[in-house]
Amino acid sequence: MELNTEQAIYSVRQECAALKDQSPHPSRPQVPKLVAEQTWLRIHLLFDQLISSAIIANSNEDMDIDPLAPMRSEALADLCVFVRNATAMDPQNQTMAMSANVVDGILATIRIMLRCEMTYAEAKQCSASAGQALSNLATNNYKLQAQLIDSELTKSPIESIFWYLLSSFNSKTQMSGLMLILNTVKNSQQFVEKVCLSEAGHMLMNRIGEMFGETVDDSDEKAMMYVILSVVIEHGYLSVLLTSDPELEMFGVLNALAVYCNENAQPSVYARVLDTTLLNALSKVLAKCHTLLQQVWQDSDTLESQNDDSDISMDSIMAAHRSLSSTASVLSSATTDMEPSFAARVLKSDIPKQIVALLGLFSKELPRIEKANQPSNTDETSPIKKLFMFKCELIQIIGNIAYKNKAAQDMFRELDGLALVLDHMRIDENHPFIREYAVVALRSLLNDSKENQAYISSMDAQNIANDYDLNQAGIQASLQSDGRVSINRNANT
Predict the structure, then answer these.
(1) In a 3-state reduction of DSSP, which class is residue 486?
(2) Which among 295, 291, 401 has a CA at the least distance from the CA of 343?
(3) How far apart are CA 95 and CA 111, in angstroms?
């Protein structure tokens, strides 16, 4: 029967509403949980009729607004609610629904409804119900998960059903898409690999990373995004998303990694997750932040003085800020009490070099206020500079890497990291507790390192922090007759 009249669609709408009202549900214990085969076949036929009607209406170029679209959307929504409820109540209904080709009806419904959800409120509601039905169908359903992976991820990235759901303006539809993705990847490394290595899946996961970074509240959606990204991290495919040349706009993915490292604070986890490829990607992020900020601060001291022809937008600067914040958080966690193999991996990367380079840049560009009552123009400091107060974190990373590691101690001396840390053993009101961070880092840099102690001893006395600060690091400094400073271990530490 063709549904090209209001009366015909109304009749089908009534049948769909009756099916929804009699769907298996905890509130209806009298309704059998297992749906009969003929019912599934009828549902499939109803999907076909309604979708065919929608396709014909959408192909009519003479009609700007489809007057039957709201009623048709309501009927499709009722069918999707039936599928959602039935598949949640009894897993056997998944098999029977797939045998009746109900999945094809749901996929078509999602695509049609999302194209017109901004026009019809009924379509917006229907898309959410369809997404929830598909997600329930895929729960613990390996066959359907494999089918979706193989069919949807070979399409153009923006044509996959996963992308359709995430691109919705309806948060409920987005949530159903996130649940569908999680149900698909959470128990299968093979599926995670297929998703991350395909063009459509790669774009999809990066989109989830963007959404995670853009969502500021602790919503259910953000929690779901994190769970998905943590599965990717756990299976070792985050470096695939970041690629060998990560963009600073991928701060959401980096933020998820920072959360993961904070929640799984174990050296063995860091050693397993942060492989050589991922460390190299983090190093590239640090290098890109350095390059961008160096250019910004060379061109202008304040945001307001940037001219309209500037190649660097405020969006790019904010992306650098968020990427650097997340990367510093990752490295602060991961470099604490490192396993020997992981420590060696860190030293082979460019991370120590990039950390020192950034600390040097910040030391040059960020103002130091040594006394609380010191006159300053801090309030007039560039808003860009106020975004990058990361000296403490960088110093902490240096100290962590150098802890009981002779090779790291030597490397930081050669990179001038030792001198930079020493230079920060003074009060800086713009960086509270920076001296304490420097004290701890200096202890790691000097501990059992005659070369680093000799390096400091060779410096002029006026370039050395006062004895109190060095004593806090377990070091006793004394001025010799030739004006040099002698460095010894403090017997009281």
Answers:
(1) strand
(2) 401
(3) 23
pLDDT of residue 388: 86
CA atoms of 392 and 259, how far apart (whole Å): 19
The number of C-alpha atoms within 13 Å of 139 and in the hemisphere containing its C-beta is 22
How buried is 29 (Cβ within 10 angstroms: 0-12 exposed, 13-18 middle, 19+ buried)? Answer: exposed
**Across 218-222, average pLDDT:** 87
Confidence of residue 463 (pLDDT cuts 50, 70, 90): low
Coil/strand/helix, residue 238:
helix
Please state, in angstroms and rounded to a whole number, the distance separating the CA atoms of residues 145 and 187.
11
How many C-beta atoms lie closer than 10 Å to residue 189's C-beta?
Answer: 13
pLDDT in tens, 422-437: 888 776 766 778 888 9
CA 323, 326, 328, 331 dihedral sign is: negative
What ranges in 371-483 are assigned the alpha helix state H? 383-387, 391-402, 406-414, 417-423, 434-446, 450-457, 467-472
Amino acid symbol at 19: L
Q: What is the DSSP string of 183-235?
A: HHHTT-HHHHHHHHHSHHHHHHHHHHHHHHHH--S--HHHHHHHHHHHHHHHT
Lowest mean pLDDT among 217-226, 250-259, 463-472: 463-472
| φ and ψ at residue 80, rounded to 5 degrees | -65, -40
296-321 b/e with 16+ CB inside 10 Å = b? bbeebbeeeebeeeeebeeebbebbb
Q: Taken in order 35, 39, 41, 46, is the CA torsion positive or negative?
A: negative
Q: What is the pLDDT of residues 93-116, one digit of tens each?
A: 999 999 999 999 999 999 999 998
pLDDT for residue 276 is more than 70:
yes
pLDDT score at 215: 83
